[in-house]
Amino acid sequence: MKGRVLIVAGSDSGGGAGIQADLKTVTALGGYAATAITALTAQNTQGVFGIIGVEPAFIAQQMRVVLEDLGADCIKTGMLHNAAVIEAVVEVLDHTAAGIRVVVDPVMYTKGGDGLLDPAARDTLIQRLLPRAALMTPNVREAEALSGLTIQTPDDLATAGRQLLELGPAAVLVKGGHLAGETVTDWLVWRGGEEVFTAPRLASRNTHGSGCTLASAIAVGLAQGLMLNAAVRRALAYVREAIRTAPGLGQGRGPLNHGHTVRPWG
Questions:
Q1: Which of 166, 252, 255, 262 could form an SS bridge with 46, CB 3.0 to 4.6 Å?
Q2: 3-state SS of the chain?
Q3: What is the CATH number of the domain that holds 247?
């Protein structure tokens, strides 16, 4: 088992997104996942029905005790629902996790549109966390909210990625799955280069947690020593197969098949 990833994110009681998706993904790709849980959510494939936040000091304590004992090769952040939580996480990054790369999934909305970030925390996210990111992975709606741009075409993904790069992250992957069309385009921008990834769209409602899953798949790739574009390429392939082979659970947006890399018993 190679590649230690500390995941700082919220729990999804339905098991399709958040901490649950992150743990499955890192494990399925051969890494070791530890967690600092930021919030409990009551949710399923149809939406989010309740959220209980964890005290920021306890989130920071979870991070510190893991880092001081188990260590981490990469840190992945997901749902950080208010400014106090973001500040607590940044403090640990600065004082206990110096030199460890951070993948920031700026979780602002669920797949169904439910808000997961206090609007007042947007500036804190931009000013405090994004400059510490080795990579951020916004979807179209999040990229629009953070860049102030309107994204309607694949070329707009690139423009938004370049704009977001000015906020301080070392690289930005703008995910284009929410755009219309038969082809899905994701645009990776970093200081000194760009790469575009395209694939035929899969006709599936089973995409719940795909963003969390992708970010964690990239994080474990980086933890295992892959170059950024190679980690992104492997992660996209992993997510695509997880969607293609999804079990079809629930009445709404179903979860992925995170375990498709795992050989069954017997």
A1: 252
A2: CCCEEEEEEEEECCCCCHHHHHHHHHHHCCCEEEEEEEEEEEEECCEEEEEEECCHHHHHHHHHHHHHHCCCCEEEECCCCCHHHHHHHHHHHHHCCCCCEEEECCCCECCCCCECCCHHHHHHHHHHHHHHCCEECCEHHHHHHHHCCCCCCHHHHHHHHHHHHCCCCCEEEEECCCCCCCEEEEEEEECCEEEEEEEECCCCCCCECHHHHHHHHHHHHHHCCCCHHHHHHHHHHHHHHHHHCCCCCCCCCCECCHHHHCCCCC
A3: 3.40.1190.20
